[in-house]
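4.2 Preliminary Data

To establish feasibility before requesting continued support, the project team ran the inverse folding procedure on a target of 499 residues. The structure was first converted into the token representation described in Section 3, and no sequence information of any kind was made available to the design step. The complete token record follows.
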């Protein structure tokens, strides 16, 4: 017994821990309900999908599935890995896949991810390790939707209210790490899962410190209390000394995300397209990028990212034109005595966006527009403004997959509780184009439709598309085996070691 205690003490003393930070408490550590960035990030360590992207975000490869193939255009087969364990020691099987699908399409949950499964006709368990998915029609994301984290049937089969289940704070997954501590507004601790099917991670623990203030996160990083952290361009260019770069590697690449100002189109004041165009012409996107990012970002021109097949290079960002903005506002009934007034709401979880809101406020003032600002803590922002749609405008960002599904953000039917059509955008032509693109397997044909969507959406101005930031990450040089790729640095994290 004494030898065992000494061994445990030795293990604890020499356990390696990766110290990270997250800007907000996760709302739900459940992959089918994780819609905020903190929840999504942490659940990524706890759960697996059937498939995933390779290290360059180009090819889809197996995850919980060891093999997958299409029998025909509408029938997909998954052969699952055998011997995969849940964190409680039970064995993963095809029943868990079927259960996850049935949960996603049930009326017991409100999840924006459910719509991605709208073309699935049936999911069949052929045996313990074989699943057949039958689609109503060909679907361009037929394979990618199965990157969704799989849930444990044996734990949740009798759960009556998954939205408020204790599972969301005590998750059981198949991932390389398991949750061992959750202290809201303090620390979230993940421990390496000994029985992970790809091998136990070499770093024993990952600890997320919940820190809303970006300056506090930076100070902790500089003091060595964090091993990794995002670096803002201003900090990168003006505030870091040589000793910082002696301790940290810097990894920089364009982010798979963009930031936008979204209008609540349910409100009458934003229904007039002249108003939205005027606000677009009143801002200077180049100035915004120059002030906030130096050379570490680019202007965003529309809803799909450069480098994707959906990107339309013919659409350029509007140039600031204060004279025309004022003319449009006068046509819409606004002048110096009755100025157009609205509020920009954003969260303090980003150190950049509150400053971006101030710059927008200043720029819009030149066109006679009166802008009020509201900066809130992330969870309060979600619960008080985003979810109930109680905002004028929101300054937010979207992270996109290499093949984003425009249905989630732009189709009229996604304007619902839990949906990602936050601004209430309705356009019959866009709905039709989305519906036409869904069954297309031919990438050239679908890309043509997406580029048309790109043009229509940007002309409508439901959002003011602002900027695409670079992702700048500082990593402690004590972390070994990092191999950067087109998808970033996280693709091989189970092989990382810490000196």
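Position-by-position output of the design step:
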């Amino acid at each position: 017994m004494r030898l065992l205690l000494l061994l445990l003490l030795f293990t604890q003393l020499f356990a390696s821990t990766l110290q990270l930070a997250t800007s907000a408490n996760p709302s739900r550590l459940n992959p089918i309900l994780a819609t905020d960035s903190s929840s999504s990030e942490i659940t990524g360590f706890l759960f697996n999908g059937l498939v995933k992207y390779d290290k360059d975000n180009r090819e889809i490869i197996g995850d919980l599935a060891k093999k997958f193939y299409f029998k025909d255009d509408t029938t997909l087969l998954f052969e699952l890995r055998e011997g995969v364990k849940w964190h409680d020691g039970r064995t993963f099987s095809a029943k868990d896949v079927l259960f996850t699908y049935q949960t996603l399409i049930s009326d017991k949950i409100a999840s924006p991810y459910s719509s991605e499964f709208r073309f699935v006709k049936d999911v069949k368990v052929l045996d313990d390790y074989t699943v057949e998915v039958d689609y109503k029609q060909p679907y361009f994301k037929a394979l990618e939707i199965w990157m969704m984290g799989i849930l444990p049937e044996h734990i949740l089969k009798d759960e009556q209210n998954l939205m408020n289940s204790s599972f969301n704070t005590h998750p059981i997954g198949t991932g390389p790490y398991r949750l061992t501590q959750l202290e809201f507004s303090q620390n979230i601790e993940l421990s390496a899962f000994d029985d992970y099917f790809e091998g136990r991670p070499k770093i024993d623990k990952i600890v997320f410190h919940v820190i809303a203030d970006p300056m506090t996160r930076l100070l902790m990083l500089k003091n060595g209390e964090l091993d990794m952290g995002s670096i803002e361009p201003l900090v990168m260019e003006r505030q870091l000394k040589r000793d910082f770069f002696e301790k940290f590697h810097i990894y920089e690449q364009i982010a798979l995300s963009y930031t936008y100002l979204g209008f609540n189109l349910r409100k009458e004041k934003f229904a007039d397209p002249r108003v939205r165009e005027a606000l677009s012409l009143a801002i200077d996107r180049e100035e915004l990028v120059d002030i906030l990012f130096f050379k570490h970002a680019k202007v965003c021109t529309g809803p799909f990212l450069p480098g994707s097949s959906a990107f339309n290079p013919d659409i350029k960002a509007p140039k600031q034109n204060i004279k025309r903005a004022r003319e449009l506002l006068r046509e819409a009934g606004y002048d110096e005595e009755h100025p157009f007034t609205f509020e920009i709401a954003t969260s303090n979880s980003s150190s950049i966006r509150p400053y971006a809101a101030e710059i927008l406020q200043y720029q819009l003032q030149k066109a006679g527009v009166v802008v009020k600002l509201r900066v809130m803590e992330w969870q309060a922002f979600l619960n008080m403004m985003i979810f109930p749609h109680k905002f004028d405008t929101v300054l937010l960002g979207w992270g996109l997959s290499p093949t984003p599904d425009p249905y989630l953000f732009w189709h009229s039917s996604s304007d619902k509780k839990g949906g990602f059509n936050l601004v209430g955008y309705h356009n019959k032509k866009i709905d039709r184009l989305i519906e036409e693109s869904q069954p297309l397997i031919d990438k050239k044909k679908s890309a043509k439709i997406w580029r048309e969507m790109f043009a229509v959406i940007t002309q409508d101005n439901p959002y003011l598309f602002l900027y695409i930031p670079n992702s700048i990450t500082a990593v402690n040089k004590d972390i070994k085996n990092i191999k950067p790729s087109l998808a970033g640095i996280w693709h091989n994290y189970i092989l990382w070691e810490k000196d």
